[in-house]
């Protein structure tokens, strides 16, 4: 994705990871920022990529993040969810594992989020052989 962007903002909550990446990718069009996406202001842009973040957070924090993501034109979200039928969006305490342990997963279009998007499209669904669940990537057209 980086080669297709005029500028790419990479964000993570782990300071050591951001410092490592700043050194490793110093001669690129990438800016690395250590942010808490539930609290801090996000960089501006047309598209946001959110990879396996929401599954770690409480519903309150997911609400806060979705509100911020609504200003982008496109949002791509990848999450680890159970295979088959499951109850989406069971609330949890942030940072204490993932929802998969509760036989749940994130569905931003379902209750309690009911995220307002123009269109949603599943890009990828990959069953995992060595662990429970699947990895799903969805594209959301916001504006």
List keywords for this structure.
143 residues, alpha/beta, 2 domains, two-stranded parallel sheet, 2 helices
Description:
- The protein has helices at 15-24, 59-69, and strands spanning 8-12, 30-34, 47-51, 74-81, 119-127, 134-141.
- It is α/β, with parallel strands linked by helices and 143 residues long.
- The mean pLDDT is 92.
- The protein folds into 2 domains: 1-35, no CATH class; 37-141, no CATH class.
- It is globular, with a radius of gyration of 15 Å.
- The strands form 2 sheets. A 4-stranded mixed beta sheet has the order 3-4-6-5, with no helix packed on it. Strands 1-2 form a two-stranded parallel sheet.
- Helices cover 15% and strands 28% of the residues.
Mean pLDDT: 92
What is Rg? 15 Å
Give, in order, the helices and strands.
EHEEHEEE
Specify the number of helices: 2
Biggest sheet overview: 4 strands, mixed
Give the tally of β-strands. Answer: 6
Oligomer: single chain
State the distance separating the first and last CA atoms.
21 Å
Poorly predicted spans: none
Structural class computed from helices and strand pairing: alpha/beta
Helical coverage, percent range: 10-25%
* Apparent shape: globular
- How would you write the strand order of the largest sheet? 3-4-6-5
Give the number of domains.
2
- As a percent range, the share of strand residues is 25-35%
């Amino acid at each position: 994705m980086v080669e297709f962007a005029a500028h790419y903002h990479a964000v993570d909550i782990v300071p050591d990871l951001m410092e490592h990446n700043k050194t490793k990718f110093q001669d690129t069009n990438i800016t690395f920022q250590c942010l808490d996406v539930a609290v801090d202001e996000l960089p501006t842009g047309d598209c946001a990529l959110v990879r396996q973040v929401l599954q770690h957070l409480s519903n309150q924090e997911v609400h806060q993040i979705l509100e911020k993501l609504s200003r982008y034109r496109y949002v791509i979200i990848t999450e680890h969810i159970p295979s088959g039928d499951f109850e989406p969006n069971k609330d949890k305490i942030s940072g204490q594992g993932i929802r998969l342990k509760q036989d749940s997963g994130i569905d931003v279009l379902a209750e309690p989020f009911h995220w307002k998007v123009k269109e949603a499209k599943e890009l990828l669904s990959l069953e995992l052989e060595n662990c429970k669940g699947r990895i799903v990537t969805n594209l959301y057209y916001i504006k």
